[in-house]
Amino acid sequence: MKGVTSASSILLVLGRSQEQPASASLPTVFLQYKFFEDRLNITCSANARPAPVISWKVSGSGIENSTEVLFHPNGTTSVTSVLQVKDPKRQVGKEVVCQVLHLGNVTSVTQTVDKGFWFSVPLLLSIVSLVILLVLISILLYWKRRRNQDRGYLYSKQPWKRDDVCLQSKGQACLLPRKKIRFFKFGVPVL
């Protein structure tokens, strides 16, 4: 299982820990969510004496709930409720409320489901393919240009002639015919 994003919030009563609660008044509540590739798990845990009851306020469909109860030797009970959302994209930006009922008191923990970056395999493959294609085209164009330079073929305005002719035209561009020439290693032109 690969968790992509997770967040959590904890409601603790001062002076208490989950192992040894001070009294049977308020439960310790823990709310978190975790994104997976195809689903969203929202977990609410409560620890108290006697056992608390967990309920949810969540909008949307395709949500399954499972609850697990664990009794501790010190007399406290941990109740964990997990919501599995089949379409996690619809839940992004919405509030999730975990309500814990214990001895007639209701403790609510609210959290907004936030997803910074949505990972999509087809989108990632498309971007990688596009980058590879652009790199290959760049390499091909560079190789073609380099090959032409290695052969020595250049189109030029007769570079072996002096610029005297252009200077006589008083700053106007020289309109000399372009010829395909080949240079040797020492720069001597051959027609």
TrEMBL record:
InterPro entries reported for this sequence: Ig-like_dom, Ig-like_dom_sf, Ig-like_fold, Immunoglobulin_dom, OX2G-like
GO cellular component: axon; cell surface; membrane; neuronal cell body
Keywords assigned: Disulfide bond, Glycoprotein, Immunoglobulin domain, Membrane, Signal, Transmembrane, Transmembrane helix
Compartments where located: Membrane
Predominant place of localization: membrane
Domain of life per record: Eukaryota
Residues of the Ig-like domain: 27-114
GO molecular function, one term: cell-cell adhesion mediator activity
Topology versus the membrane: Single-pass type I membrane protein
Single GO BP term: negative regulation of neuroinflammatory response
Transmembrane spans: 117-143
Name used for this protein in its record: OX-2 membrane glycoprotein isoform X7
Organism classification: Eukaryota, Metazoa, Chordata, Craniata, Vertebrata
Gene: CD200
